[in-house]
Amino acid sequence: MIRVDEKGFYGKFGGAYIPEMLHPNIEELRENYEQIISTEEFKTEFQSLLKDFVGRPTPLYLASRLSEKYGAKIYLKREDLCHTGAHKVNNTVGQIILAKKLGKKRIIAETGAGQHGVATATVCALMGMDCTIYMGELDIQRQRPNVERMKILGAKVVPATSGSKTLKDATNEAMRQWINDPVDTHYIIGSVVGPHPYPEMVARFQSVISEEIKIQLQEKEGRENPDLVIACVGGGSNAAGSFYHYYNVPEVRLIAAEAAGLGISSGKSAATTILGTMGILHGSKTLLMQTEDGQVVEPHSISAGLDYPGIGPVHAHLFDIGRGEFVAVEDEDAMKAGIELSRLEGIIPAIETSHALHALNMIEYKKDDIIVINLSGRGDKDLDTYIKWGGY
Amino acid sequence: MNRINRLFQNKKERVLSIYFTAGFPELEDTVPIMEAIEAAGADIIEIGVPYSDPIADGPTIQDSNMIALENGMSLKKLFAQLEGFRNKVNLPVVLMGYLNPIIQFGMEDFCKKCQELGIDGLILPDLPMGQYLEEFKELFEQYGLSNTFLISPQTSENRIREIDQHSNGFIYMVSSHSITGAKTGISEEQKVYFKRVQEMDLKNPRLIGFGISDAETFNTASAFGHGAIIGSAFINIVKKSKDLRTDIQQYIQSVIQ
Predict the structure, then answer these.
(1) How far is B191 from chain A (nearest CA, A)?
(2) Inter-chain contact A281–B127, Cβ cutoff 8 Å?
């Protein structure tokens, strides 16, 4: 049974390794979130916003030309059609309602590629909450359009100038800010990482993805369960969402595509399950890319959203017990897969998502298998990278 | 009885603990800085083990961590530097470090090494009490290491009592809602918190840290606790220093007067 235990562990991974200064915040969240999200009031507001604001349910689309090419029945779960362009908003809608119920006045969040930052800034605008986004100085330069979007939405974007100036450091900065202002602030973590209860809470808000897949597949195929679900994994929120209701259905294969960057042995990679070892980062025990002295190693991926040295504890557990199959996709192959989907189906995917698409070339499956690929985000934010790469 | 307990038995007020980052500003400065702190009249030495992601620390200590790592500092290197330091330094010594580098070293090996070298206690800011009790308490006790927990203005009375029960050196009172080096001076609101904890009559001595930088803040902190911890302000002194021994002497004397 794959489920978080009462101390916040998935098998050996998880927990809440946080400074005492954050203990009251984390406790407040842990003690209240399950009760709040199970009230009818919360459910009604959450469902209504997912429907009318986010645009759910997102379609489950049979990609016929892609299916023909790969010789399987391939469905795309169209999270790219969510408002703001990716699945990230499912979680921010849930957390903003929660933050209001907890009486919080300010929101902080970290962001890498800017998708979670935009999704957070969006729900803060919606609810009239003060919003500050921490973003690595390097990512601010790499993802300019998303920075502008956050500012238009009224958020303050603060550069993280420490360390490597990317997602990991933005997360450090957000945690420090939370220590500095613990009473009125809620920290909306964007992935299934961080101290318990964040990994499970974020996964639950994202689990709407697999909940819908079950219903939609039942309608289209007369069965709830596909043979395979494929998703990309950085921290792992879209993978957790699309795997969630299949964790304990062993006949559904769960495929997680990590970013191999320039290659596993290149020193420029983010393939955490292959290169990582057990460690503690951002409050949870998980697999982590680190030196033998326990210093966190800088990852690399062409996609800023997968550029993270750790992985959510639930994924470390899926890997550890062999429930998940992990593949590592190199930058080049992901880019090719992104262009391929654009030309076969008329959908330009986010480069993160392109990693999941390339997994089709790396795993075995049967001709009549039903495969669901979680199309986690759209590629608008990545046009510059596609253009530079392909010389279009 | 270890050196920390002995210290507090003999000295009940104005105890000064000085934090510095191992391997900063230069790799081999570790032991010379310890000697200078002792010579200058401080009471406890707190050695920071540098880490790539120190989430409870502000820019000053983040920078000293980064530079120390660039200088080549690691736990192994630190232990090598500390071989035989007890021939030169008599003060109680506490290691302060984030959990991950220690776990990679191996918690038992780490504790054993600390005992061999003559280290008295540990401050591991991202080790929560529950995890400590479950996984590490026995080890710490087996190797004679005292463990110090942090409390902050947000910590509930019940939890402070629980922390007091499981502490056996001193309690580290974080003076405000903040990371290290973020604020200077002590406000009336902070004094209310200091007084509240003072009146709880805890069994462990209390040292106040974060925002302590000079004689004035040290005196205020000492009025409400058994003394204080200085970190960021001390890092700024050694960072600029051309003559560590003299500058450390001068600075610490200016604080304790």
Answers:
(1) 18
(2) no
Q: Does the ipTM exceed 0.90?
A: yes
B46 is catalytic: yes
Q: Considering the candidates A73, A88, A165, A168, report the single residue annotated as catalytic.
A: A88
CA atoms of B166 and B161, how far apart (whole Å): 9
Residues of A in contact with B98 (CB under 8 A): 280
What is the 3-state secondary structure of B1-65? Answer: CCHHHHHHHHCCCCEEEEEEECCCCCHHHHHHHHHHHHHHCCCEEEEEECCCCCCCCCHHHHHHH
Determine the pLDDT at residue B180: 83
Inter-chain touch A20–B151, beta carbons under 8 Å: yes
* Residue that has been written with the tokens 């460690």 in this structure: A279
Give the model confidence (pLDDT) of B150-204 as tens digits. Answer: 999 999 999 999 999 999 999 999 998 888 887 777 888 899 999 999 999 999 9
Taking only the tens place, the pLDDT of each residue in B55-90 is 999 999 999 999 999 999 999 999 999 999 999 999
A294 to B103: CB separation less than 8 angstroms, yes or no: yes
Q: Alpha helix locations (H) across A128-266? A: 137-142, 144-152, 167-180, 198-206, 208-221, 237-243
As a whole-number percent, the residues of chain B with pLDDT over 90 amount to: 93
Q: Is A282 on the interface with B (CB under 8 A)?
A: yes
Q: Which CATH superfamily is domain B13-256 in?
A: Aldolase class I (3.20.20.70)
